[in-house]
Amino acid sequence: MGNSFLISPSLFCSFLLLSSVSVDGVNSSSPFADLYHSSRALLEEVGQLVGRHRDRFTLETMRAQNKGYAAEIAVITYNRLNKLMNGDSKFRILLSFGQHGRELITSELALHLLSVLSGELGMPDLNTVSMDNVLDNVVIKIVPMENQNGRKRVEDGDACERRNGRGVDLNRNWSVDWGKKEKDYDPYEENPGIAPFSEPEAQIMRNITKLFDPHIWVTVHSGMEALFMPYDHRNGTPDGYTSKTMKSVLADLNHKHFRDRCVVGSGGGTVGYFAHGTTTDYMYDVAKVPVAFTFEIYGNSSAPATDCFRMFNPADSATFKKVISEWCTAFLTLFETAPSHLKADLGKWVSIRGNVVDGGESRAGRRKVLDGIELGMQELKTYFRLFILSSVLLMFMFCSRISRSKLIHTGSSNLS
Ligand SMILES: [Zn+2]
Description:
The chain is an alpha/beta fold. Helix content is 44%, strand content 14%. It binds zinc ion.
């Protein structure tokens, strides 16, 4: 940013909020029309912001399709030009918002965060520990609206829709423990799709991850206030070398920004149910992202179960601004603290791309092959399960056909 960060992150975000203006709303009949952008308006605003700050932002639109269903995802890369460092030597952070259609507030947070990163609002009083230094050392990729098709369904009137444009939950379509169903499984909420990565949105996100090879991943949701780390599919946190780092980063954020009121820990261990095939479990287990989080930024448990707008999104201006402000500053803290916490761990990191930060080439190459095999094995296991299931079904059909023809045969011999 041309002008430095001259104030504390908190003031910066608050100022931005005071001066932010909602454009057109979700739809004219929505109670949120005054507070929230439509998806079209939000993405247009993001595009314009990028256009005004080409020294630090680039925008790509990634597309994929599968069996007649197409999806596209806008990805914004924040990378300030810096003569001393090239992009590869910076910390890489991947953030995704709006994976679930009904969680409108998350994409609003993405837009605000991008506005802060753009530096459009210069501030007077100097804070010398500059966010400038922090932001010089990171490359941030931001997906402001992962599930554009699902979001459109919400805007068309289905306020409780969280799945994509053809009814698949994008946070159940990944390959770690894919397809397992709990007793209270509800296809309206959690349909995992016909196979891991059947959905174009998940394919695009996986590709971004492979190409970008992030050190830090955060997927942003709403429904409660929580700071989650792996695992979602079982009770407990991983034993890996970054487990301690993840725990301490989350505890710091919770204390500093949320007065310790967020639920913190593994998704599966704290939320009350296991989630299978989630993005964060894949990011940690398969993509080997050292720090992988799920943030839940807002929830209203007293809203009626049929009122999804209010369950997942602030309904008044004061709460809306408070949520955006708190989480915006929490992200700036994350950009500052997580890389410094992680530095000590990265000697042991072997990324999915095979770049060993502190190690030999050959080890990197070997590990890369192993990662590939592991990735393939996860998916093979799932396909094998499907194969066994369909074989059993075929056998059953075959046997019942034989017994039926025997009966007919016996019947006809009795007649003769
Ligand atoms: Zn969600």
